[in-house]
Structures are given as C-alpha cells and as structure tokens.
Amino acid sequence: MSDRIIFTNATVITGFATIKDCGLFIDGDGKIGDIFYMSRMPQKSFPDDTMVIDVKGCTITPGLFDSHIHGIGGAGTEDCKKESILKMSDRLADYGVTDFLPTIYTDEFEQMKAAETAIVEAMGHEKGARIRGINLEGPFISPKRIGAQNPAGAQNVNLDLFHDLIKTGQGKVICMTVAPELKGMRDLALEATKEGIVLLAGHTDATYENIMEGIQCGILHSTHFFNAMSRLHHRNPGTVGTIMINQDMCCEIIADGVHVHPEIVKLLVREKPKENIVLMTDSLRPTKQRSGTLLANGVKAKLSPEGAWVSAEDPDLFLGSALVLIKAVQNMASWGIPLDTAIQMASTNPARIYHLNDIGSLIPGKNANITIFDSTFQIKGVLVNGELIRDEF
C-alpha cells in the first residue's frame, strides 16, 4: 500500500493536455485516483488519512522515462554488476526519472550477456527509477557507423546469437538497434516481431532503399536520430532523409544542443508528428559523477567545451551525452517547443512505442509514476507506484 496524497495548486500536464490550477489525488494502491480543478476541491471527499501537499504552482507530469541510457553517477551497464544498475536507478530519481531502459553497448558477445544478466538481477530491487527492460544497442550494426561502440563486437546477422541474447535477457529485452542494410536483416526482424521486440535503425550506413525495406519488415523506430547514420543527400536520402520522409517512423533525439543543433531539432518537430519523437539522453557512466576517473565503456572521457563526452585521447571522438532528461525537457522549452510537447516526447511517446501501457500519462487508474518540478526545472517530487521517493517540498 502507498500513501494517499493530494497535490494541490498545480499545473498538470497529463501527456495529452495541460490543466492549470489543479489538484491530483493518488489513491492507496499507487494509482492515479482523480484530477480536478481546485475550484471543485470543496465538493470533493477524501479519506481522513490523505496527505495534502501544496505544490505552489509547480508542474506535475507523467514520470520521465529515459529509454536510452548507458550510465550515470559513475555507474554503467558496462560494469556488468547488479549494484551498478541499482546505483543508476537511484541517481536517475534525483533528476526526475521514474522509469528507464539500461542500454547495453555493442561489445564482445560475453560482455553483452554479462550486462544483460546484471540488469535482470537488478530488476525488482530498485529504490529509485524502475527498470522496465533491456535496450540492446547492437550488436548487428554497421562497422562503417560504429561511433563509440566496440568495433570488435559488431556482428553480421546471426539468428543463433540473436536468440542467445534474448534467452539471456529472460524475456526482458525491450528493443534492439540494428543496421537495416545487413544481409539477413529481414529474417531477424521477423524473429524480433515474434518476440515482441522493437527494432530501431541505428549505427547504419543504409540507403533509402535499405530503410524502406526495413520499414516493410517492422523496423519502425530509430536510434539517436542524425547521429551514427548515413546522411541526407539530394541524390540519396540516406537514413536521415528516409526517416524524415516517412512520417510513421519514430526517432530518438538527444536534445543537448551538441549532438543535434537546436534549429535542426526545431525542424524535426515541425516536419514530423510530435507523437513519433522520443527524448532520451544516451547518458554515459561519468555523467554527474562526483569523483574518480571518468570512464565510458572503458575509455577515458572528458567533457568537451560544448558539454558532450569525448575521448580524452581523441577529442574528435564523441562518446555520448552528459545530459539528464529534465535538462533535455528544459532545453526543448528554451528552444520554443511547447512544454507539454517536450513532456510527451520524454514520457508519453516512449511508453506507447515500447508498449508500457501502465505509464506515460496521468489518467485515473494508471500507475502513479510522477515527476514534479518548479519553474526553474528543479525537481521537487518524484513518485514511483504512488510512493514519494523524492520530496523537496
């Protein structure tokens, strides 16, 4: 049983609409009980043990859902340790995240499996953000667009290896990044569909035709759009152009202003249905790390002047972002994108795309996974299953 709570004097972003001067009731079962205008509160009746918290104009939203993250706070999936995954859970809650998909790099096959095992062992033991499953970034990706992945881990399509990864994940694999141009990808895509796994095009050198063939066999999402994929060209739209052209294809975006220029993000929002864009972080192990050596997948990292993680030995090599999801939301708002749209991209959209129907919107009966922040985007409260795990009121 969770506490019964009423949050009063809030702006509530439900995932579909923004309602000002509202109250929100959490029932004793960890669910959304009611959302109402404050003018109606005198007519409402609640159990005597209900806690009332005046949020004084703060914004209440569906819990932020980071669907692509490798690490934070000096802990990462590459550690292959249950304790590291749980540390990620704890630190993510500090930044308003209620749900996440720990993301495994393309690496030596046994290393990937060890990381999967650590995630599975951590599930159910979280004290912060909930682990909703496993995100596999590879290994069936293009060596030509390897990015910060381990080149030794990139594989040609191999259904035996695919099924081995799925078996090791014990039914917890939610999604996988693939290069649609690889030979045998259609067979892999059909197997992924049977397993209920969402495929994303990424780390790919695909042509227009390759992406169109991928769409036809169920590759309908894409990994960190614009990064580590074939570019738009007027004679060949490449991966970037094909995803822009096909409105039904979804895409992740790293809204740190470094990986993708803000004006390109704004172009994307204008040209693509907002429900098909997902904010995520691609955050790495040293993000928000307080002390010690900064390592990202075994590589010494440093922050670039622009604020992304790059190799300490090769500053031209981007490793990933130093972003947290509430900052991504704040960035989008600062670029002129409506706040409710940014929240939809950071919560509602990934929940829908990954078939997690219990979260992503504030509707009576849904799980009370909730993020509360003030006008400066400082986290004031975080609830997971109705339990107030962060309280700054």
List segments where confidence is low: pLDDT < 50 over at least 5 consecutive residues: none
Largest sheet: 8 strands, mixed
Helix amount, in percent? 25-40%
| CATH topology descriptor of the largest domain | TIM Barrel
Distance between the termini: 22 Å
CATH class identity of the largest domain? Alpha Beta
The dominant shape is globular
If helices are DSSP runs of H or I spanning 4 or more residues, what is the number of helices? 9
If you compute it from the alpha carbons, what radius of gyration comes out, rounded to the nearest whole angstrom?
21 Å
User: What's the CATH architecture of the largest domain?
Assistant: Alpha-Beta Barrel
The whole-number mean of residue pLDDT values reads 96
Per DSSP E runs of 2 or more residues, the count of β-strands stands at 23
Number of domains: 2
Q: What structural category do the secondary elements indicate?
A: alpha/beta
Percentage beta strand: 25-35%
Q: CATH homologous superfamily of the largest domain - what is it?
A: Metal-dependent hydrolases
Which helices and strands, and how do they pair?
Blueprint: E1 5-13, E2 18-26, E3 32-37, E4 51-54, E5 59-62, E6 64-69, E7 71-72, E8 75-76, H1 82-94, E9 97-104, H2 109-122, E10 130-131, E11 134-136, H3 159-168, E12 173-178, H4 185-195, E13 198-201, H5 208-216, E14 219-222, H6 238-245, E15 251-254, H7 262-271, E16 277-280, E17 295-296, E18 299-303, E19 308-311, E20 318-321, H8 325-334, H9 339-353, E21 370-373, E22 379-384, E23 387-391
Helix pairs in contact: 1-2, 5-6, 8-9
